TrEMBL record:
Residues 24-274 form the EAL domain. It comes from Sphingobium fontiphilum. This is Diguanylate cyclase (GGDEF)-like protein.
Length: 288
């Protein structure tokens, strides 16, 4: 009897795997046409400077809407793109689109593009970046690339070379989702990031969890001492916003301030904010 139950469990498990594989296969096939069919769009989420309430950076986030499959999350399609080498043309397109869109913003606002770890193993990235800067006319200092700690897991010689080359061109580098991966202080010792983004999971707990608070505080302090900017990610309520401000995070990002939005909606928001007087970031910044 137990044998039987075991077999049933196995066959159910097997079914789940098969379904997942066929969904992945279906998405991979659909993704092959997505770029050419204009199904991919970049949305932008404003990131605010804590002391002035100004928009400092806009993070470019890719969106995919397939005619029959509907909206698919980047958390689902980016890993698929990474596994079948579609990530290269998709990223080249994303950087170029982001640079073009950023040309209509105020000169102090940067655009941040997420870069998959797999792209730091090939030499296509610096070429794509230079191509996008030349095609758009955007100043290199206004382009920030977000990478996660996982880029350091292997082949660090090559990764370091590519990162240094990008910084030599004048780009800024941000360490994304800090605290969720391997978070070795060695990375910070050997590599000079311009920005550290503290993962949203730490902001989630700052209200009730003293450990999350202690970690967020220490990272903000460490970054300040190293002259590195910080972003508190995932600010969802007033308490978290106040906390991030008091802790001294340079910038704040989160749904309570602004959600990712299409380029034209962002422009409208930026134009509406022009006349308002600067001051520390508050929830009013999301409304004005
Ligand atoms: P990420 O780079 O850490 O981006 C931040 C994610 O957090 C975005 O999700 C954003 O919508 C979400 N977020 C922002 N504020 C809040 C908040 O207050 N609460 C919560 N719960 N979430 C918030 P999104 O757009 O679904 O992207 C998910 C991930 O997919 C990104 O995480 C990034 O790793 C990846 N991704 C998105 N676009 C691209 C892209 O163009 N290229 C690459 N390589 N990866 C991308
Ligand atoms: Mg990011
Ligand atoms: Mg992040
Ligand atoms: Mg994240």
């Amino acid at each position: 009897q137990s044998k039987h139950a075991g077999r049933n469990r196995f066959s159910r498990f097997d079914w789940g795997m098969k379904e997942k594989q066929s969904r992945t296969y279906e998405l991979e096939m659909a993704l092959r046409g997505a770029l050419a069919n204009g199904e991919l769009v970049m949305h932008y989420q404003p990131i605010f400077e804590t002391t002035t309430g100004r928009i400092a950076i806009c993070e470019a986030l890719m969106r995919w809407e397939h005619p029959t499959l509907g909206k698919i999350s980047p958390a689902e399609f980016i890993p698929i793109a990474e596994s079948c080498s579609l990530i290269e043309p998709m990223t080249a397109w994303a950087i170029e689109q982001a640079c073009r869109d950023a040309m209509s913003w105020d000169d102090h606002v940067r655009v941040a593009v997420n870069i998959s770890p797999v792209l730091l193993k090939t030499d296509g990235l610096p070429r794509a970046v230079i191509g996008a800067l030349l095609a758009s006319g955007l100043a290199a200092r206004r382009l920030e690339l977000e990478v996660t700690e996982s880029i350091f897991l292997e082949d660090s010689g090559r990764t370091n070379m590519i990162l240094s080359e990008l910084q030599r061109i004048g780009l800024r580098l941000a360490l994304d989702d800090f605290g969720t991966g391997y978070s070795s202080l060695g990375y910070l010792r050997h590599y000079k990031f311009d920005t550290i983004k503290v993962d949203q999971s730490f902001m989630r707990g700052v209200g009730e969890n003293p450990r999350d608070r202690a970690i967020a505080q220490s990272v903000a302090y460490l970054a300040r001492s190293l002259d590195v900017e910080t972003v508190a990610e995932g600010i969802e309520n007033e308490e978290q916003l106040r906390y991030a401000r008091e802790t001294g995070f340079t910038n704040v990002q989160g749904f309570v301030l602004a959600r990712p939005m299409p380029a034209d909606a962002l422009l409208t928001m930026m134009q509406g904010r022009r006349e308002s007087a600067p001051g520390v970031v508050t929830l009013a910044d999301s409304r004005r």
